[in-house]
Amino acid sequence: MAASPTSPAPPYPADLPPEGGTGRGKTIFGRTVLYVVAIAFSLFAALPFAWMLITVFKTNNDLYKPINNPFIYNDPPTMANLDLLWNDTGYRTFILNTLIVALAVVVVTVIAVVPAAYSLVRLSGRWGESLGVLIFLVYLVPPTLLFIPLTGVVADLGLQNSKWSMVLVYPTFTIPFCTWLLMGFFRSVPWEIEEQAMIDGYSRVGAIWRTVLPISLPGILTVVIFSFTLTLHEFVYSLAFVQSSAEKTVSVGVFTELIRGDVYFWQALMAAAALVAIPVAILYNYFLDRFIAGFTLGAVKG
Amino acid sequence: MSAPTFEAPAHRDLATSKERFLLDRDSVLGPLMLLPAVVYILALVGFPLILAVLYAFSNVTVGDPRIDGWNDFVGLDNFRAVFNDTVFRKSLRNTVVFTLVSQFFVIILANILAQVLSADFKGKRLARFLVLLPWTTPIALGVLGWFWLLDSVYSPIDWLLRELNLLGPGTQFGPGRNMYWLGKTDLARFAVILVHVWRTLPLATVILLAGLSSIPQDIKDAANIDGAGFWRQLFYVRLPLLLPIMAVATLFSLVFTFTDLTVSLVLTRGGPVNDTQVLSTWAYFKGIQGGDLAQGAAIALFLLPVLIAIAMGMLRLARRSEPS
Description:
By secondary structure, chain A is an all-alpha fold. Helices cover 69% and strands 1% of the residues of chain A. Chain A has helices at 28-56, 60-63, 80-88, 91-123, 125-138, 143-156, 164-169, 171-187, 191-199, 204-215, 217-233, 236-241, 250-257, 266-295, and strands at 259-260, 263-264. A two-stranded antiparallel ribbon of chain A has the order 1-2. Classes of the chains: A mainly alpha, B mainly alpha.
């Protein structure tokens, strides 16, 4: 019986007591608890972002009056803060830098990861899987352990204060994670297709190029998305490597450009954060299940 | 490792005729394809790890990051200096306490949240998107939102407390008109732990969700037919089956909290008076801001033993779940 986990399966005896549901909260009490808990968690998670978005459109006069209800617009909403952010700060430079770094990291990652994952799954026999796990564990070596020696390496290579330092270093987390991710995809590509291509006279490399890569495009797309989002998430390295505003990415740039001494341009600051955070969240959310499939280390089958 | 058993005869003929093409040999092509990734990892993770250890015994600075010879090594000087610093001992203690306390709550809350999100209800997709926001958005920007939410003067939470008559002259939290969330030691520690819970809860939850959805339908059906109620099923069927995946979730969130730099740095900059300083922020202030790479490296090295222990735990879990 291929009952999906969400639909009540037909073979249940009809006279089951209502609390026999598997936590789907069949009673009114159960439903109520479910909604209350779901709403409470959603509010907790979204609270800082909601406050961000409200702030963006507030006037100074409205925002900086402690007796005003902060959750509503006491003055009409304004676009002036977005205007300030876009036209009078380094934000556009930060966005551009972020995109350059992210695209370069994506390219480096894909070039390194696709052959590596294929090799580990298809060409390395039994130790391929073990090596794959080891490479994945490299993802857990935290930036906070590496940023100090890497600062030395970056300085030694003359890349300090340059966005290319980030392009050099970010693959330290994208390559391990994406190799592991892509291994899962290659495992599910049936052997017979390559076999057939090789029987048809293609070399191994030709067979990979013509059959495996096209089939694995969704997997490669996932790699692209994740090296992109993980790059946008990164904070520690860029904080350590880059001091000049012209080379900064968004996640570090907003802190320096929009906080001048003790003066915070709160609305513009929140706009800068939200404009990046929300799109990244949507992108990430869409691919999250694949991300988690990598995290479960095969402890989950299905 | 080059001759899997499925090779059909026709293929074998073809392969032998091409034997002289090195690239068609698995034993050549395999390592060759692996090479770029492995070389990169060795050069930019393996080498820096060794460098971190060397730095910790040397006198390198941001201005002079090169170890030129034996006279650049200073033995245990850095560790002695680090240990004699009360801020370091505070950071070490904070790192452990913040991690353990926040992860205690994450495990409990993640189990509740995963049960909720595995149920069916209206608006579930939106709830899932919102609940995942702390993990899917860049951490520095999310913490920036908290920083503003806990502002010393304009915090909307303070406004709410004032409206509820809990804050202000003659009230529960009075007499001040603000809580100064990030300015008082206890509240600042509470805030850092809260934001850690906020940040890692979604990760633990989705890992648990993946575990929940992999419980075979026939087990659920059997429990239903046997008339087991919600709580019975929860404690006797689902939670026991979830234990391995719960271990995975815990190890991951432990790593991310234990090594985190961003939350303490953005929220409190380690303050007030270093009371929320953790190992990673202290390493940053000493090593990068203070320019003393050597001491920074020595401080960060204290993360390593715990990380190794966690990695070994993961290896064991991964091995246990390998198809044998």
